[in-house]
What does this fold into?
Amino acid sequence: MAAGYRIVTWTPYKALYDGALALGCTAFVGAFIGVALATTPEGQRLSEVQLLIRASGACAFALLTLILAIGPLARLSPRFLPLLYNRRHLGVTCFLIASVHGGLTLLWYHGFSDLNPLISLLVSNPRYGSIQGFPFESLGLAAWFVLFAMAATSHDFWNAVLGPAVWKALHMAVYVAYALIVGHVMLGAVQGEKGLVYSLAVGAGAAALAALHIFAGGREARRDADAATPDAGWLRVGPGADIPDACARIVTPPQGEKIAVFRDGDAIFAVSNVCRHQGGPLGEGRLVDGCVTCPWHGFQYRPQDGRAPAPYTEKIATYRTRVEDGIVFVHETPMAPGAETPPSTLARPA
Amino acid sequence: MFIGWATPSAATRRGVLFGGIAAALGAAGIAGTLAATQGPPGDGAWDQSAVRDWDGLLVRAPYPMLRTRALGEGVRTAFLGGSGKLSVAGRLPAGLDGPVTVRASLIARGDHAMLAAVDDDAWIRPAAAQGDDLAFPAPVDLGEAALQGEILDAKCWFGAMRPGYGKTHKACAALCARGRLPLAFCQTGACITGGEAPLFLDADGAPHTRAILPLVADPVLARGRLVQVGDVLQFRVAPDAIVRL
It folds into this structure.
């Protein structure tokens, strides 16, 4: 259901989502500046510019941590799916806040001299061979370029131009950006603070994020391990009755894309788990109006042939299924995208 | 199930609304904690709007300085700095020497002072004689010293930047040193709290060259001689007597 891209329209939900985002960012920056001013005696305060530099940097880091947590959270519980939708708004906001941080830093610490600030950023601290003395600014700059590339290509136009696979690969670079930012903060601001709060905050955020990804990935891996069968090419999905009506169970073949096996009443269908829009997990969606509906952005496909309903033209692969003694199996070899594949049927209880 | 393009259920809308409020409160709590636990930046001060005339005796070396009574407590020395991260050395009119009037704002931290000259050409002009006691007395060699600490740019540490020390300030300090602003040396611990920060010079009492730049704002051990020149304490160190810690 994505024959083209259109100007994004505003809906009350998007307004609510972005309102909550603006409230959160304003609260963070406002609280940082307010508390810093309230707890520091006159004459001992950071300048207004330095307060903004710190507040915006901390806010961008916290926001990026939240952004990366949404994916695994949504895999663990569908209750987090409303956060996933419009996640790109969070990403663009994170980029803008990081740009405020970077721009002010460039002006304040690298401006007002006879050297180009951008050159100063890379050469003023020449200790690239040292870990302790490493110029953390260069890590921040590299992360900013990654965030820029992602923000600039966040619109569906670029998804259509680059193709979902390339677009998805490009946007997975957010993990590179996060690693660069952790290094930027640990080798910069954290080194300058004598207390443990900053290092604990960064470390706890990164550790929680890693744990969340490992936990969500481990759960999927355990589920995938249960699918192996001695029957060549056929994967065990499990009892058909255990698949909630209009929902799916996801299995991972030895090679290729994951497979989403849907139950629609007594009928069992299997399609690729990868949405052609942004690679969303179709098996975490459900059947709506008879169509497989992606949980990320609502793109739809007919389960029997994997085609988006007219006038849309996207196609995904379908898979053969069979049912034996109430147990559903799916064949690991995909049919051609758009190929009609008849469903198998669960036997009704006598 | 949530579908992006569909009208969200009332429960979803409520969830986003209350979740957003809770997230904002959580964000404020995290931000407040981070803000409250920041290290102190030091008590240097610079009111850029308080520009006035300062009378005194111009001293050109090792850095441009003004010997003046205008800072109170008898004759004291204020370094002269330009706008931004640049010295006024290149803006000193040729042949101008002796008593002058400088138009500048004061950067001060404890007993340390720098005058930040205004940008226009009339920032310095000759003045009437102000007495012989403004001249620097003869230097007094206080002997050898080995100090641990950090090489700073005096302008930032005196109050132009808060904080004006440490790794996050290294690039700025290097630019100030490159701009020929005076360097100072703070001993470990005193970089934050303030106190004595002697003028940092080479073994001959001249400004260091740009070869010092990579060492600026790093923890170092420096071995040299302390020399008292009037109210200015100098720490004279040869470049090869500085060891990064």
In short: Residues 164 and 279 of chain A are 6 Å apart (CA to CA). The two ends of chain A are 40 Å apart (CA to CA). The beta strands of chain A are 234-239, 248-251, 259-264, 267-272, 286-288, 291-293, 300-301, 321-324, 327-331, 344-345. Chain A touches chain B through 80 residues (CB under 8 Å).
